[in-house]
Design a protein that fits this description.
The protein is an alpha+beta fold and 381 residues long. It contains twelve helices and ten strands.
């Protein structure tokens, strides 16, 4: 049961980690190339160089990144602003597939349209075709003093990525509008890069850093979201250790079982000793007995865990339908289903550790059995 629980829980955690990673990287880039001063000129030339320099690059797109405040009526909300080219953005992100209303083509230069995350739009109390006011950090110097720069935008669309950081804080506009708003002229903040394998991001980042000269800053998703994924790994490791205690507790049953067998078979052990059995051979007998229990328990536990892990997405809805409950309501959680992803290295690691624990649990009772003295054991027989 301990092995089954351990395999199932780790598989579900793997599924949640993959789901979160896909949602985050659906908006975040695998690799980014920026100018050291925060601006990058002639992005088309740089993009062509990047595509030719590495075969793993499957898409590039420029972007402008900034911060500002959006207001609507009495509502004010800080926001991250991303200026994009609607024709280029689908090459590096999935935002076009996450739009609830409107489309990327509505972001046209000079129209000052803007797309908001669902949570951000809800906080401002706006919908499609409503107007919001953007307040930028840059100020205007006027005879009346220093005044903030304001610009009115029309909400042309609302998207929902399924990750709180983006849905409640991100606003998207056309890159030309962002360049005018933040006085970027013909420059961009950087270039977003999509790879054929996101797990090669660190290697590609290093290769691009070596290839480009020192005027660029190259980063990747493992750096940008390092704290989040590190927290997920720590949580998974701690869950593994906690559930491993179940296996350890189960191993004490092996200890008690073999101790009772040893006490029950004292006379038989003594007779074997008188027939010439060595303490080592007696000890091996009980170690084998405990090992058989451990192997069978681990084997059935692994089969049960694999079966559950491969069918969690079917079993959980069946339980919800049977009892009329919903463990993760869609209106509360961004992930409303239980994803499961079985990693065979987890299965092998769990089974090996479980077998070792069960084998170690047999050593003490087996050693006690080997110390049985025939004369003492047969005195009252």
């Amino acid at each position: 049961m301990g092995v089954t629980a351990l395999i199932t829980v780790l598989s579900v955690m793997n599924g949640f980690e993959t789901e979160l990673r896909e949602r985050i990287l659906g908006m975040a880039s695998h690799v980014t190339v920026q100018g050291y001063d925060g601006q990058l000129g002639d992005w088309q030339k740089t993009a062509d160089i990047l595509v030719k320099s590495n075969t793993r690059i499957v898409g590039v797109a420029p972007y402008i990144s900034a911060q500002g405040m959006l207001t609507s009526g009495q509502q004010v909300h800080g926001t991250f602003i991303r200026g994009i080219l609607p024709n280029e953005e689908p090459k590096v992100s999935e935002v076009g597939e996450k739009i609830l209303s409107g489309s990327l083509s509505d972001l046209m230069p000079g129209k000052y349209n803007i797309m908001l995350g669902k949570g951000l739009a809800s906080s401002l109390g706006v919908g499609v075709n409503d107007k919001v006011t953007m307040i930028t950090p840059q100020a205007l110097s006027t005879p009346a003093g220093i005044l903030p720069r304001l610009k009115r935008f029309v909400v042309s669309g609302i998207f929902e990525v399924g990750h709180n950081d983006y849905d409640t804080s991100l606003a998207i506009m056309h890159m030309d509008d962002a360049a005018k708003l933040f006085r970027m002229k013909n420059n961009v903040t950087g270039i977003r890069i999509k790879l054929d394998d996101l797990f090669e991001a660190t290697k590609v980042r290093y290769e691009l850093s070596q290839f480009l000269d020192g005027n660029y800053w190259v980063s990747d998703w493992t750096r940008q979201h390092a704290n989040f994924f590190r927290a997920v790994k720590i949580e998974k490791r701690m869950m593994f250790l906690i559930l491993l205690l179940i296996v350890t507790v189960a191993a004490f049953n092996i200890v008690s079982t073999i101790v009772m067998v040893v006490r029950d078979k004292q006379s038989d052990i003594a007779i074997l000793r008188t027939l010439g059995a060595t303490p080592k051979s007696i000890m091996v007998i009980f170690i084998v007995q405990g090992a058989v229990i451990g192997v069978l328990g681990t084997l059935f536990g692994a089969l049960g865990g694999i079966g559950l892990a491969l069918n969690v997405e079917t079993i959980v809805p069946a339980i919800e339908g049977l009892f009329g409950v919903h463990f993760m309501p869609a209106d509360v959680y961004y992930i409303s289903e239980f994803p499961s992803e079985l990693h065979w290295e987890d299965v092998s690691q769990i089974t090996i550790i479980s077998f070792i624990i069960s084998l170690v649990a047999t050593l003490w009772p087996a050693w006690n059995a080997s110390r049985t003295q025939p004369a003492e054991a047969l005195r009252y027989e």
